[in-house]
Specification:
The complex is a heterodimer of chains A (388) and B (80).
Chain A: E1 16-20, H1 25-36, E2 42-45, H2 58-68, E3 73-76, H3 89-104, E4 110-113, E5 116-117, E6 127-128, H4 134-151, E7 155-158, H5 166-180, E8 186-190, H6 191-200, H7 205-209, E9 217-222, E10 226-229, E11 237-240, H8 249-258, E12 267-270, H9 280-303, H10 327-342, H11 346-354, H12 370-383
Parallel strand pairs in A: 1-2, 1-12, 2-3, 3-4, 4-7, 7-8, 8-9, 9-12
Antiparallel strand pairs in A: 5-6, 10-11
Helix pairs in contact in A: 1-9, 3-4, 4-5, 10-12
Chain B: H1 7-17, H2 31-41, H3 56-59
The chains are: A alpha/beta (388), B mainly alpha (80).
InterPro entries (chain A): MbnB/TglH/ChrH (IPR007801), Xyl_isomerase-like_sf (IPR036237)
Protein name (chain A): DUF692 family protein
Organism (chain A): Hymenobacter fodinae
Amino acid sequence: MRAPAQSAPAPEPGIFSALACNLDANILTAAFPLLEEGRVEALEWSFDTLFWTKQVPAWFSDLLQAYAAQHRLVGHGVYFSLLSGRWTAEQQQWLRHLRELTKQFAFDHITEHFGFFTGQNFHSGAPLPIPYGANTLRLGQDRLRRMQEACACPVGLENLAFAYSLEEVKRHGEFLDKLVEPVNGFLILDLHNVFCQLHNFSVPYEELMDLYPLERVREIHISGGSWEDSGQVPGRQIRRDTHDEAVPEEVFQLLERTLPRCPNLKYVVLEQLGTGLQTELSQAQFRADFSRMQALINQHRSTSSHPAPEGFWPQQLLPLGPVAEDAELEAQQQQLSNILETAPSFEAARQQLHASSLANTAWNIEGWEPHMLETAISIAQKWKRKPV
Amino acid sequence: MQPSVGPQALTIETRTSVYLKNNSTPMKLSQAVLGAVLVGLTVQTTGCIKKEDPTPKEEQGKPSKKNPKVPDSCPGCGMG
């Protein structure tokens, strides 16, 4: 194991223009000119996506360490499955891995996604929302405490792009606020996820942002996505957060409007997957998107006073008790995952759901929008682990 | 392996360069780190995708409703 880099003095407060940078040849090739020019002010690394290799290559580790030494490296988890009813050996291992990594890299903070993973095995499935109840709040708060105990730095959660209903969309910000409150945590506000919700539920930006605790936003994500035609609602298109295209104009406009509303913002991260960066043209567009993002941030910096942001350090580390679990929630999640992953049609999935233990419960499946159930089926079946 | 930029790409970058200002917080990387990244890229493989994940070849195909023209993504944000 490589020794942690010598820490440098903390940089001046500000907002860093950052890239989501993983061990991916296309991303690194696209980003290299920006790295060379010193314009990438911070890196976000999805530290749990390297399951296909046993060791981080030294050259990539050195790149991460260069940023960590300047307090400009943040970690972004994908696979913890924060809100699974059951506590698994894989989650325990995920925490062990995080604990080891934080000895190696001085992360400025660690984040994860909201939701539970549909897959029965780690590294399969996709995250979906859960009911916003006292039981799920307790579960999520317990898992966040464990994350914070493992990484010993600020922790945060990202808003989810997916929702089944408008009511759920409107309650998401408040529930995220309650989840992170005990750990003095923060939010990643993914503006493409917000864009998905504005479009898919026809809700105005101001109305939705008023429902988010924007003083807790320490990080913003921007990215691109794609459109999919709805089979259930003819003529309707669903916006999906596929991270594979250039950042749309609407998301840049959302960034410009949102920057002044987040007093504790520290990072704005451009995300794009390597699968969408295979051509020189797409790589150049990626750099153009970064330039536009950086220009908006610089414009905001030059026109606003930006006092030292909240650090979101834990006020006190509470002792960890027994792991919170919820057997009923776990059973419901398994049923839902199975239906979504195996249903041969939308109608079959709908009928199975109404005959399941989720009917007439806090899941409120009766209020799910047809085009979003259709999307959930599509996501779950796309990411289902294929038989070996 | 210096990444190259084609004529169309230059057009895009030139267009966006008007947005740039000089009040950012630069992050100077050493030549050793940058050089190692270039060498590393020559033997690098793709991350965030594993063998069992759907690949662009499997799902991309001819653009249609069932075979979207977009490559596949990481599942993280929930609508990928």
